[in-house]
């Protein structure tokens, strides 16, 4: 007989069948014998369905948020943590004792914790590929680490580099390259950001927020040139545990 649900958690996103979070938390609940705890995917076509998720899934205790709603969800929340305000993106929602919805960002924490062990003294500047919600947590973490960064996008501007502007001189200046886009995620595993991979060296770090597949084309190509590579799995584990602490405040 299935025990009654005591606490319900879930992931809000679109096209999230691949989700790391559901498997991770389901296994966590089993291992820690948290009977009546459940974690579900809330796959919605647009953010306008947010209130349907809240109304139809009582008793909700916490929600993770993924692509493409990390920024779009903010207007639905009652308050934000100080760091979520600074970052401008939310990936964790806590239901307070007063029934309010409070947004947090644990992406920056997970990224920072997973990148730190790779850093050496020459790693001073980073390129962030992409300008979406995930890139904002990355940028905040780099600021906390004292690493300068520049965004790269298909649309160049005064403050954002275009992919076609990345040269050997840019690679000499920027020793960390971070893919914060979904390009290369399963099932589109042959795709990769259009950058000149031949300029990676042993002094570079190539970091991909993607964890499925474990080695993206972005990482393969950088590794082939001798770069240190890292996928997003550890980041996800760190951010998930941080979210768990927030939900259990």
From TrEMBL:
Record keywords: Amino-acid biosynthesis, Aromatic amino acid biosynthesis, Oxidoreductase
Segments forming domain Shikimate dehydrogenase substrate binding N-terminal: 11-93
Source taxon at top rank: Bacteria
Nucleotide-binding among keywords: no
Pathway assigned in UniProt: Metabolic intermediate biosynthesis; chorismate biosynthesis; chorismate from D-erythrose 4-phosphate and phosphoenolpyruvate: step 4/7
CDD domains to which the protein is assigned, alphabetical: NAD_bind_Shikimate_DH (cd01065)
Protein name: Shikimate 5-dehydrogenase
Encoding gene (name): aroE
């Amino acid at each position: 007989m299935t025990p009654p649900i005591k606490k319900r958690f879930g992931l809000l996103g679109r096209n999230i069948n691949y989700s790391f979070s559901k498997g991770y938390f389901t296994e966590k609940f089993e291992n820690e014998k948290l009977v009546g705890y459940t974690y579900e995917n809330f796959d919605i076509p647009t953010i306008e369905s947010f209130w349907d998720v809240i109304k139809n899934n009582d008793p909700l205790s916490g929600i993770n948020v993924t692509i493409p709603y990390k920024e779009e969800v903010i207007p639905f929340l009652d308050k934000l943590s100080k760091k979520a305000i600074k970052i401008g993106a939310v990936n964790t929602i806590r239901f307070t004792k007063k029934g309010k919805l409070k947004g947090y960002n644990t992406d920056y924490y997970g990224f920072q914790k997973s990148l730190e062990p790779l850093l050496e003294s020459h790693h001073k500047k980073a390129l962030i590929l992409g300008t979406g919600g995930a890139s904002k947590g990355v940028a905040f973490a780099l600021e906390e680490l004292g690493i300068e960064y520049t965004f790269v996008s298909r649309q160049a501007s005064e403050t954002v580099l275009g992919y076609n502007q990345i040269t050997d001189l840019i690679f000499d200046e920027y020793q960390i390259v971070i893919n914060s886009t979904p390009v290369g995620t399963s099932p589109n595993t042959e795709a990769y950001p259009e950058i000149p991979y031949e300029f990676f060296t042993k002094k570079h770090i190539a970091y991909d927020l993607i964890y499925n597949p474990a080695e993206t084309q972005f990482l393969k190509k950088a590794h082939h040139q001798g770069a240190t590579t890292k996928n997003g799995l550890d980041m996800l584990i760190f951010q998930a545990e941080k979210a768990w602490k927030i939900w259990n405040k």
